[in-house]
Write a structure and sequence with these properties.
The complex is a heterodimer of chains A (288) and B (259). Chain A has 288 residues and is mainly α. Helices cover 63% and strands 0% of the residues of chain A. Chain A is flat, with a radius of gyration of 28 Å. The termini of chain A are far apart. The chains are: A mainly alpha (288), B mainly alpha (259).
């Protein structure tokens, strides 16, 4: 008896389908890869971190409208300006000089060539900051453990683009991927404080951020002292604005222990103490 | 001049008969449209990454079209032996080269025009503004740069054994100039003699094609390039294209046509 090729094909398809339904649930347990919920980690493994750093750099390149040093230009590998800006840093004239990596033209080819490229240090403004977001999104997808991506992205969304809810969603995504990140908790607190004016929620978040910071190992804590100061000073400002002066002083005193400028914090403590002092009935000083 | 135009017309017809351009255009369009459809943080105004990707694809496609088209012109005529009846007519070897160059250059220009119209439609539909003068400068400079590349490719096709080797050599040279050509002076500064002299010689000899790459100016909506500088850059490209065409003619005028 001669079997029809179509019949054989149908039979084979039926066998394949039956086997697939039986094997698929087991196959998911064979390797750790299937546990990953990120397609990039499956595709690239740890190599995705390299891409993430490159995409984060691209966000900085866009922030400078393409005026960015190449591998041939000598420049200090300092903090990226999108990160510095998210911490409230603005460029001083000295910083501007440092950013002029091109310097004087070396020859006529170099001089003439500068007419055909962007040769001026500028930052995106007037809501054009949105243009850095695709690169930050890609960086977060490539390396969900890169915390700066979430804090920088959220900062620009809430501060420059008036998108606090998108910023919150991005930070919460970051928190899900990095549950022990005091940086994300602190940024989330800033969002609730500056955009929503929700003092109690902010207090809880910043105290949790401080708790996470205190759980760091001594070496990491030593390297991140500035984060401790940033959290405690902001907690102090929050308590001062809420009228809780003793708590504000307590936080400022804690910040003094790690601050490079404890004198400035002492002035703030003195100012709060002056507010706390009961009004005196002493006569006004005589006029001269 | 009529002879040169007639030869150029044949090359242009060849461009739209072959599939290279269509494949590259469809690929560019598909990738750009796919990139444009991605939603980042519910913000529909984000557009520069789409412009960046599209401009990069246009540059790659234009270089592919220009180099591949020009690299096969002379070898194909020799291989199919159509060059004999062509040169038996009152066509000089100089006219033959000029006709081939003009045809390749015009064909690349037509392809560029289609690519840029697509670019303008896609980006304009998202940005709601069309900086036509910037686009005009970008297309003109890119076309001027392609003149140098086509002349270089024709020149290489006289020397190299096969169109594939011409294409490979030209791609390496052009990509090398675009990526590191402008930095050779910086590299030379950190070398000792005689390497420094070698780097400087290369730096001053090569055509600086990176000048003509104003993608950043288009992508970041930067101000226009002064028209005087644009004119000087055009002269610079014309000088290098002329030099390579002269070298091609010098090589071709005494070359045996038998393969």
């Amino acid at each position: 008896m001669k079997a029809s090729p179509y019949l054989v094909l149908a039979l084979l398809l039926a066998v394949c389908f039956t086997l697939a339904t039986g094997l698929q649930p087991r196959a998911t347990t064979w390797s750790n890869r299937s546990k990953s919920d990120n397609v990039f980690s499956v595709l690239f493994g740890d190599g995705r971190r390299l891409f993430a750093n490159q995409f984060f750099t691209m966000a900085d390149v866009y922030f400078h409208s393409g005026y960015y040093p190449s591998i041939f230009d000598l420049r200090d590998q300092g903090t990226k300006e999108i990160v510095a800006e998210s911490h409230g840093h603005t460029d001083s004239p000295e910083d501007e000089k440092k950013e002029d990596f091109l310097g004087q033209p070396k020859d006529w080819i170099d001089r003439f060539g500068r007419h055909f490229r962007i040769a001026e240090h500028t930052h995106l403004a007037h809501s054009n900051e949105r243009e850095i977001l695709p690169w930050l999104r890609l960086a977060a997808d490539m390396d969900p453990q890169k915390i700066e991506t979430y804090t920088v992205g959220a900062y620009f969304m809430r501060e420059h683009l008036n998108q606090p809810r998108e910023a919150e969603a991005f930070l919460r995504e970051g928190l899900r991927n990095n549950p022990d990140s005091y940086e994300i908790l602190f940024e989330l607190g800033r969002l609730f404080y500056e955009n929503d004016h929700d003092t109690s929620h902010t207090r809880n978040l910043w105290q949790l951020a401080l708790y996470k910071w205190l759980k760091l190992d001594p070496e990491a804590a030593k390297e991140n002292k500035l984060a401790f100061e940033e959290i405690t000073v902001n907690l102090a400002n929050l308590e001062r604005d809420a009228g809780n002066y003793p708590d504000a002083i307590r936080w400022l005193q804690a910040a003094q222990k790690v601050s490079p400028a404890p004198g400035a914090l002492q002035q703030q403590i003195d100012a709060i103490n002056a507010k706390m002092a009961p009004p005196t009935n002493a006569p006004a000083p005589p006029l001269h | 001049m009529n002879t040169i135009w007639a030869l150029a017309g044949v090359v242009i017809k060849e461009l739209y008969r072959r599939k290279d351009f269509y494949v590259l255009f469809v690929l560019t369009a598909l990738i750009t449209l796919a990139a444009g459809m991605v939603n980042f943080f519910h913000d529909p105004k984000i557009v520069r990454y789409v412009k960046d990707i599209c401009m990069l694809l246009i540059w790659i496609s234009a270089l592919l079209i220009a180099i591949i088209t020009s690299a096969r012109q002379i070898p194909a005529e020799r291989e199919s032996r159509t060059i004999f009846p062509l040169l038996a007519k009152p066509v000089t070897r100089g006219q033959f080269i000029l006709g081939k160059f003009l045809g390749c250059w015009l064909a690349s220009g037509l392809a560029l025009l289609v690519f840029y119209v697509f670019f303008a439609i896609i980006t304009g539909s998202r940005e709601q503004h069309w900086p036509w003068l910037t686009y005009l400068q970008a297309i003109w400079l890119q076309w001027a740069m392609l003149a140098v590349v086509i002349a270089l490719s024709l020149c290489s096709s006289i020397i190299a054994a096969a169109p594939s080797s011409t294409t490979t050599i030209c791609f390496i040279v052009v990509a090398g100039i675009l990526l590191v050509g402008g930095h050779l002076n910086t590299v030379a500064l950190h070398q000792t003699q005689p390497l420094q002299a070698v780097f400087y010689t290369i730096y001053f000899l090569i055509p600086h094609l990176e000048w003509f790459d104003i993608r950043d100016i288009v992508v970041y909506d930067w101000r226009l390039i002064p028209w005087g500088d644009l004119f000087l850059a055009t002269l610079y490209a014309a000088a290098y294209a002329g030099l390579f065409l002269l070298l091609t003619w010098l090589g071709f005028r005494r070359k045996s046509l038998n393969t």
